[in-house]
Amino acid sequence: MIYKNIEQVFEKEKEVFNNLKKSLSGISTEQVEFRDSSQKWNIRQIVEHLALVEEQLVQLITQLLEKTESKGNHIKLNDTPISLESIINLIKNKKFVTKEQFEPVSNESLSNSINRLEKVHKQLNELNSRLKSVNLSERSFPHWIFGKLNLGQWIAFLVHHEQVHLNQIDLLTLHKDSETRGSIL
């Protein structure tokens, strides 16, 4: 996806996070713990993974923003496109093994992981006005698989990563629901 500006990224972030919360609301314990044979994690573990990753991403985004601000170069580039297209095209249909530090390990409750994500999204949204006042392409930091991502791309990556796992959660819920219906018939 190519975003016209940071505002579009934040609109998408809000949409994806709201869809994630909607997908998780009213979910049964069976669904939360269900793991399809093709999946490494169950829904609870996926959400814990998202919390682990996004906590680190917001720290990184904050650090990159502070470094950009400290330079005193406050060029408003609100209409500068932000894109992950080239990266997304390279990784389509590939599975990656996450770094150990982002592996769910704690048996954390779903509600606790959701609360952590709420906090992270609140922190990210508090950065929005500051992000609008800097050149988002000025600072970059390497992703361990995709290489150098600039500040705007890191925010777009957070949204993309959450969308990928939301799709995974929806598939697991669908598989569990169809498995349950199949056993009733």
Describe this structure in words.
This protein has 185 residues and is mostly helical. The chain is built from 7 helices and 4 strands; from the N terminus they run βαααβαααββα. The protein has helices at residues 6-24, 29-33, 43-70, 85-91, 110-126, 128-131, 151-184; strands at 2-3, 82-83, 140-143, 147-150. A two-stranded antiparallel ribbon has the order 1-2. The chain has a two-stranded antiparallel sheet with strand order 3-4. α1 runs parallel beside α7 (151-184), α3 runs parallel beside α5 (110-126) and α3 (43-70) packs antiparallel against α7 (151-184). The longest helix is centred in the last third of the chain and has 34 residues, at 151-184. It is globular. 29% of the residues are buried.
Features:
185 residues; mainly alpha; two-stranded antiparallel sheet; two-stranded antiparallel ribbon; 6% strand
Strand content: 5-15%
Radius of gyration: 18 Å
The largest β sheet comes out as: 2 strands, antiparallel
Order of helices and strands: EHHHEHHHEEH
Question: What's the helical proportion of residues?
Answer: 55-70%
Overall mean confidence score, pLDDT: 87
Ranges where pLDDT stays below 50 over 5 or more residues in a row are none
Number of helices: 7
Q: Based on DSSP secondary structure assignment, what is the total number of beta strands?
A: 4
The CA-CA distance between the termini, in Å, is: 42 Å
The structure class reads mainly alpha
Shape: globular
Instruction: Report strand order across the widest sheet.
Output: 1-2
